[in-house]
Amino acid sequence: MRALTASVMVLGLFVGGYLLFGANLLAPNTEPREVQQNVFKQALVLNNPEIDSAFIHLVFPSGEAQNPYAEGLAHYVEHLAWLSAMKGPDQTRALKAHSNAWTNLYATGYWQQANPDTITQTVGSLARIAAPISLADTFAKQERDIVAREYDVRVTERPLQGVAREVSDLLFAGMPRGRSVIGRPDTIPDFDLAQAHLLHAQTHLLAQATLFAFGNIDAAKLQTAIAAIDAPSQTTAPLPVVAIIGDDMAPLHDTADVASPTAVQDTLIWRTLTPMPACGTALRCGLILEIAQDILDSTLPEGLAGALRFDNFVASQFWVTLRLAGRAHVEFDFVANPDSGVALDDLQAAFETTFRKTALNGVSDASFDRIHSRLMSDIDAVTDVSNYNKNSVLSALQTGDPMTTLSEERRTLKTITRQDVNALLHNLSTPYRHVVRRVTPER
Q1: Mean pLDDT in residue range 72-99
Q2: CA 121 to CA 109: how far, in whole Å?
Q3: What does the DSSP 8-state code read for residue 237?
Q4: How far apart are CA 2 and CA 4, in angstroms?
């Protein structure tokens, strides 16, 4: 089963368990347990002694969406905070090699691998990330060049990046959802160090963070390690929570032909933003999106693959993506390359006609049951429940949504009906904001 549903992964609800120091350590726990402590907002442990090491994550619930300064500054702060913390005398080369950090719209995270003898040391070094950044200004400014090179590798080298950026800017109209996490060429060179220090103080608050340990570590060891932390004094108020999609955006329908100097083949980019029908929890909404996406991506009668590829040879390849945008909207992305001799406007017309027919007529019981039963079979086939739940915890921390477990996902999937999927498809048939670009290589 796909790990990702909606924007990142399967989402839902998890209620932390009690501390059980007498648990059987010969077999892995399958669900996380909450550790009582007074440093972090939450500390969770998922013990699995079958793994030699422990992987310890520290996640702050603030990402680029909450950044009120230059676009991409949250990612730059992540670089500086990690480099500052890794200067500590307890940071051996081995520890530095088995560590990393990340930033997205919703959160910023850091992790290190530890063995049973270095757990206290590792937890302490992660907590130091919240201490004020201590780097020479010249070094910190040089790190802007590292971010710029990272931008070139991850963004500039994508053939359709310029067009994709324009589509995103139009679709999200200045909303946080449209911000570039890594920054932009015109913002990265001018990242302000004073603002970086302030943003770090506003976002890297231990009292707002979650510490999550997975692997060869139990609750008692994690609790002991947390008790040994020399936590920095933090008095800065956190940044306010922001909605990544506003409620006041006007309707938009924007279609254009673009000749791109970096495009290598004709490409249709078709993106919409539409209100999500009432669907319950984030977990339930994500599963509805997953079922709808699987149907559209299939050769079922309501799918796109038969009409566009295998029967009529209109598209040589295509990608369909449905994801939640905030709590009340859904993004629908369709990207395709036309088959030989097919014009882009003909490809667009064939796609829109096929999708509109599915959206208006709805999905049949047979098609719904086929995809629904397949997802249920995927859940039942999971053998490493501990690892599955570990990934669910991490994905929830990355998105700011409540956590879930495999058992809850199974229970929730049982509640989803064909009517849920058809309500979603009906909403998607009349997009509120719609941007289309028919891209050809510049000749």
Answers
A1: 79
A2: 18
A3: P
A4: 5
Beta carbons within 10 angstroms of residue 157's beta carbon: 10
| Amino acid 152: pLDDT | 93
Give dist(CA 131, CA 62) in Å, integer. 16
Pairwise CA distance, residues 47 & 123, whole Å? 16
Q: How many other CB atoms are found less than 10 A from the CB of residue 376?
A: 15
* DSSP per-residue string spanning 34-73: EPP-SSSSEEEEEE-TTSSSEEEEEEES--GGG--SSTTH
How many alpha carbons lie under 13 Å from residue 413 in its C-beta half-sphere?
Answer: 26
Residues in contact with 225: Cβ distance below 8 Å, sequence separation at least 6, in sequence order:
119, 120, 122, 123, 124
How do residues 269-279 score in pLDDT, each as one tens digit? 999 999 999 99
User: What's the CA dihedral at 108, 280, 242, 101 to 10 degrees?
Assistant: 10
- Return the structure tokens found at 39: 């440093």
Task: Give me the residue label for tokens 């088995």.
Answer: 98
Put simply, whether the predicted model's pTM sits higher than 0.85 gets the answer: yes
